[in-house]
Amino acid sequence: MIEIPSAALTADLIAPHVDFFSIGTNDLIQYTLAVDRVNENVAHLYMPTHISILKLIRQTLLAGHAHRIPVAVCGQMASTPELVPLLIGLGVDELSISPSSVPMIKDVVRNLHYSECRMLAKGALRAGTCEDVLGQCRALLQKTSPEILELIS
Question: Is the whole model's pTM more than 0.85, yes or no?
Answer without folding.
Answer: yes
